[in-house]
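Renewal narrative, Specific Aim 1. Our central claim is that a sequence can be written position by position from structural information alone. The example that follows is taken directly from our test logs and has not been curated for this report. It begins with the structure tokens describing the chain, in the order in which they were read.
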């Protein structure tokens, strides 16, 4: 009996292609991916110039840091470490010490993780500023398009039912069990997706942009309230580092979920806009 039911379900399932993403959404998505990649790599280059984070208005050698990526020892005995809130962890081979032609060098992030690969603060800043402004302009275009086209209201704003604790808990359990939406439910984002995308768009990205601007002396001179808003330029730098780390975490989780829920289907939808869903067709 169960076997026949399964055969019937398989027999009357059909694949339907829907338009999942608009051209503007697809273009801004890929431009964001490009910008964030270069911003991360050049940002690590900038961080390497002074691999410590502080809280408040001041920060320099000898001041108490909330995070330090450094090294100790000399020659072959050089060891890397990360110190957070007074606790120190050995990170040799990952952070603090890198191998250069067989010799250990003191460097917070390794050469393969920075642009350029060699230590050059000026070049890193040029790369970072170029892609930062490109990223900002791309974001403004995306926000304007999303509001005017109704994309925000239609696709990203969760409904009252979706925000109920019972519904959210069910989605959490479904994700934990790798059960992904099918049929009609696959036509739209689920509540967890909507809340995550909104958190990134409304909280993380604005914080990253504003804290980045706060670290600019020219912007500080024109808008001194920014420094007070974040409690100092060093606080802004620390928040900037945290938001960038959270964005990296978001991207990693995003890629994993894309792969688990159907890599080719998701990739095709973000290239062509066409997304395949499986529906049960009525028996004839």
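The sequence written for that structure reads:
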């Amino acid at each position: 009996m169960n076997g026949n039911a399964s055969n019937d379900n398989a027999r009357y399932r059909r694949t339907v292609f829907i338009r999942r993403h608009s051209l503007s959404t697809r273009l801004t998505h890929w431009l964001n991916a490009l910008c964030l990649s270069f911003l991360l790599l050049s940002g690590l280059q900038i961080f390497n110039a002074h691999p410590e984070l502080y809280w408040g208005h001041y920060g320099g050698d000898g001041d108490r840091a909330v995070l330090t990526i450094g090294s100790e020892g000399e020659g072959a005995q050089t060891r890397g470490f990360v110190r957070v809130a007074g606790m120190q962890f050995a990170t040799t081979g990952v952070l603090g010490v890198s191998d250069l032609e067989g010799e250990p060098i003191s460097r917070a992030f390794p050469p393969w993780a920075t642009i350029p690969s060699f230590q050059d603060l000026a070049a890193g800043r040029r790369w970072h500023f170029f892609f930062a402004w490109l990223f900002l302009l791309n974001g403004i275009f995306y926000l304007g398009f999303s509001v005017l086209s109704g994309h925000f209201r239609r696709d990203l704003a969760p409904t009252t039912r979706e925000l109920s604790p019972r519904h959210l808990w069910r989605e959490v359990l479904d994700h934990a069990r790798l059960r992904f939406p099918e049929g009609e439910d696959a036509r739209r984002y689920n509540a967890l997706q909507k809340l995550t995308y909104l958190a990134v768009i409304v909280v993380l990205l604005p914080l990253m942009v504003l804290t980045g601007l706060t670290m600019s002396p020219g912007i500080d001179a024109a808008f001194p309230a920014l420094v007070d808003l974040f409690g100092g330029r060093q606080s802004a730098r620390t928040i900037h580092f945290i938001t960038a780390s959270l964005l990296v975490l978001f991207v990693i989780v995003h890629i994993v979920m894309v792969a688990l829920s159907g890599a080719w289907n998701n990739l095709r939808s973000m290239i062509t806009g066409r997304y395949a869903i499986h529906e049960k067709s009525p028996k004839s």
